Amino acid sequence: MTSRHQLFIYLISFVVATGAVIPARAQVEREFTTSALKAMGAPNNPKVEVAWNRYYDTKELAEIMGRIVKAYPNLASVTSIGKSFEGRDMLLMTISNRKSGDPDKKPAMYIDGNIHSNEIQGSEVALYTAWYVCEMYDQVEWIRALLDEKTLYILPTINPDARENFIHAPNTPSSPRSGLDPRDDDGDGLVDEDGFDDLDGDGNIVQMRIADPNGRWVADPDDPRMMTPAKTDQPGQYTFLGYEGFDNDGDGRVNEDRPGYYDPNRDWGWNWQPRTTQGGADRYPFSFPENRAAAEFVLAHPNIAGAQTYHNSGGMILRGPGAKDDERTYNRTDVRTYDFLGKLGEEMLPGYRYFVVYKDLYTVYGGELDWFYGARGIIAYSNELWTSFDYFRKSRSAEDEGFRRGMESVYRFDKLLLFEEGIVPWKKVQHPQYGEIEIGGVKKAWTRTAPSFLLEDLCHRNMAFTLFHLYHTPKVEVDSILVKPLGGSLTEVTAIVANRRVIPTHTSQDIQNKITRPDWIHINGGRVVSGMILEDRLLGIGSEQKRRPEQLEVETIPGMGSVAVRWVIDGKGPFTVTVDSEKGGVHERRSR
Amino acid sequence: MTRLIRSTLLTLLVLVPICALAQSKGRIYDSFDEMTKALHELQSRYGDIVHLESLGKTSGGRDIWVVGLRKGDPAEPRAMLIVGGVEPTQIAGSNLALQAIEYFASQYGKIDGITQLLEKMTIYVIPRASPDATEAFFEKPQKERSVNQRPTDDDRDGLTDEDDVEDLNGDGVITFMRVEDPQGEWMVHPDDPRILRKANLAKNERGAYALYTEGVDNDKDEQWNEDPRGGVNFNKNFTFNYDYFTKESGVYQVSEPEARAVADFVFAHPAISVIVSFSPNDNLMKPWKSDPRAGSSEDGRGVVNSVTKEDEQYYQFIGKNFQEMTGFKDAPPPEKGHGAFSEWAYYHAGRWSFSTFPWWAPEITSQRDTSGRRGTSGGSGPRPGREDDQEDESAMMVRTLRWYDAAGLSEVFVPWRAYAHADFAGKTVEIGGLKPFALSNPPPDSLAGRAQAFNEFFADLAGKLPSVALRNLETKTLRSGVYRITVDVVNEGYFPTNSALGHRLRWVRDIAVTLDLAKGQSLASGVARQVLDPIAGNGSAVTISWVVVAPPGSALSIRAESPASGTSTQRVNLR
Description:
The complex is a heterodimer.
Chain A: H1 3-27, H2 58-71, E1 76-83, E2 89-95, E3 108-113, H3 121-136, H4 141-149, E4 151-155, H5 160-168, E5 207-211, E6 217-219, E7 227-229, E8 238-243, H6 289-299, E9 304-312, E10 316-319, H7 332-348, E11 353-356, H8 357-361, H9 368-375, E12 379-385, H10 389-392, H11 397-400, H12 403-416, E13 423-431, E14 435-442, H13 452-471, E15 476-487, E16 490-499, H14 508-513, E17 519-524, E18 527-536, E19 541-544, E20 551-554, E21 562-570, E22 576-581, E23 585-590
Parallel strand pairs in A: 3-4, 3-9, 9-12, 10-11
Antiparallel strand pairs in A: 1-2, 2-4, 5-8, 5-14, 6-7, 10-12, 13-14, 15-16, 16-21, 17-20, 17-22, 18-19, 18-21, 22-23
Helix pairs in contact in A: 2-3, 3-13, 7-13
Chain B: H1 2-15, H2 32-45, E1 50-57, E2 63-69, E3 79-83, H3 91-107, H4 112-120, E4 122-126, H5 131-134, E5 176-180, E6 186-189, E7 192-198, E8 209-213, H6 257-268, E9 272-278, H7 296-299, H8 309-326, H9 341-347, E10 352-356, H10 391-406, E11 413-418, E12 429-434, H11 448-462, E13 468-479, E14 482-491, H12 500-505, E15 512-516, E16 522-525, E17 529-531, E18 540-549, E19 555-562, E20 566-573
Parallel strand pairs in B: 3-4, 3-9, 9-10
Antiparallel strand pairs in B: 1-2, 2-4, 5-8, 5-12, 6-7, 11-12, 13-14, 14-18, 15-17, 15-19, 16-18, 19-20
Helix pairs in contact in B: 3-11, 8-11
């Protein structure tokens, strides 16, 4: 080979070598993020890297769930509990330390988000919760104990089809809310024929206005991007035409028959009413496969003692009843439990208020929240995530003073903190029916959902509320066993069984309707002659359980309270007393 | 000798489950398999009229059959639905529904009225709504069971289906046990010593018996047969006035495959504007009355649980019409529904919904209670555990038993006979009582006359469905190229195009009127597509007009349609 040839070969090899190396470098797997100083409240060296300042579609949520399960097989699993209307898997994670016991036998909490398709950030909060507890299990003692003793069932999105629609199709911050099963909303025989129309194709459905000297709207003098009502004697500049769209079906109305239209949160089997009474209700409870799958899961897991179902927005911690005629269902003892956790939540979530749905919000028949408590006796909350208090954290009067002030804080925040990224400035378009108009307004990705840098804060604080809720699901223990010989071979054994947490093993709704089985207190170590449940331990007053006294049935063990039981046994011991509670766990103690 | 043969035959007739040999006029009570065979035979015999479809299977693997009777495609507009077996123990209702299928299929082409009906509308029949439950009629031992097979913890004690009945005396039927007990609630009925009813203590009556269904206390909880095998009652599983946490109602509304299948069928067929069913929630002998205190029926808010003022008149008329056509009288009092199908059909699905008992024993005047009272002494019937008003039920039992006596069928009552029952050591226990299914279901050949009366009523009712027609079309040339078109949208049926409640519920669609414009045509006034409010019947009309700008000589069409009222089109030539 000539030297020129050799040089050429070296040159080619070098090019090829560097060519091979440089792309390969770009293909190297993501490396774990590490940094010099760990900030409090997050893993410094996460096995699962996730950015919590953005929003994910269903595929991306599934991918994150998969990575968590892969990284933490002893703590996390994921399963499909059914299929959505469009055939997507309903993915539910079970988080608990498998090594300390069967997750389905531990006191548990159920969390879901996104039942209203545009109310997406509940999924991020739910997934953040799964991620955080797995990542921090080894680092925070309180989290370790929680996952050893309890279980979390997390369904990040209960409406995956319409989540995709909100994210990928043009929408306002408030649409579609529904699922995607088509409905004829205007009764004209066509289904979903007149939805929004994205006139400028930017993915946001914003407002339409037309220049009109006889209109009653003006541009706001402080921020002309904003429209405000003209004062009573002030000439107007614009007529507001509603959200982007035109009359697709020639009936004189715009956007009156959009995708779906039913409210999946009016589809639950407690105090359900049809659409004459409750707008958005459909055929019958659990008309929709997503809700049915979730309900069947809850029915199959009687260890669920707490629930959270996320919505947006408004900054609220909601409990039922959803309708005034259901007030009697929520009795005083349970309301006290609700109040305890609700007030704790207000502390963790500044700007959020603990509210009762029908009294402080509006009437809801057939809501998911009501089904959890009314039909299953489970202490459940619904957090309305995101409050405009978080724009400037000055006072809450912005919300209280009506539309104009509320929008004022939005536009101000957009100017000062988003540098005008969040608002589509008014621009001219041609409208097929109205002619030349302008469109502009708020983009769909915020005002009901948090802006990026406030999302992680929202996730962590709401997660904390649910973790304390989980912490306070019942934890039963055989506190003490007192043994008293009665003469001969007879022994009187008294056991005190306590619940170390605030939520009772059976709420009063559960007791009244015998929704779940009683707690069992079992003794062995001798032949049981008789057994009774003590109403007054010190005075020895109780009622005998004639049938199978070796397994006493207790209707509840109150929150931070106890029950006492007593047996007369032929035998001298030692005795083992076991308490077996569906929602409170299992515990045994041996007498001396 | 002949008397011996006669009584033996009658004994055989009644002691085995009451499914008599086929008579020339009536049908037998069909088992599910027999019914399925009969439906297939009807389909093959009358294939152009009888369209058979399965709505799915129960958990026991039985099809929920629906027959669409129409010349042509049953999915065309305008339909009525008949449902039998809504109360699963009323197998007579299933029998009458099958006879209705036979009637309409066989009389098409023979009776003009039926022929015309089936060419312009569909009659759907679901002959047996809850086939798993109704099959109890054919099981051995025979037990009156309203529920399907779903394992349920009826007594909420944590165990499921742990205490069922037993045929202690081996007679093939589950009847009752009465235990002599001065602390018991039940006394012998003054009008018929075979029957028991609850003592009215305030009237100084005294109980002498405790009463149970036949069986032992399997789980030793001092209740007898309180958690039998199964299940959920179809007629308690619907959303209207649903009872939570109640025996037989299911874990939630519409939880059962049968209920879901029938509900989904109704929702998927907006052509069905009238539903008539056999059930104890009668509103034909005692038509619904609007409750003036239920303000919700007026102002559109709140829970609607009383028939609306506008709709009430139609219920009253149809009920009166039914009574005049059939001549039926002295019906038992209607049962208030708790999750009942026929009430759901109106209050939640927005249809005109009519229902009545398939059969009841007529009054036998020669044996009328001489005191003049009919079950008004505040007593209750011998059906332990029922929470409904039992006052009139014991009167019905007395009347029904007298009917059976008069028909020579006294064997329908098993005489009280002593039985040594281990659960009641030292007490006198007797087993006996009215045989299962006998109270609601006579020997099937007694139904022939009733079947004919119901069939004629069904035909009459089907002829009353709304029917839309475009009439009195006028085209006025305002000037060349500009036209005013006016047309009346007329309802020529009896029923309005939608009930007042149906209009609010929107499951039955109102009439949509569409002006189909061609290229080059435009509207100067009016809308191309509009939905009308309900139009009353018998010629009532709504006038619509448009002003169209169009080239002279062009044409357009107008269409008025809804699944419940049909379609009418008019072509308009513009000169």
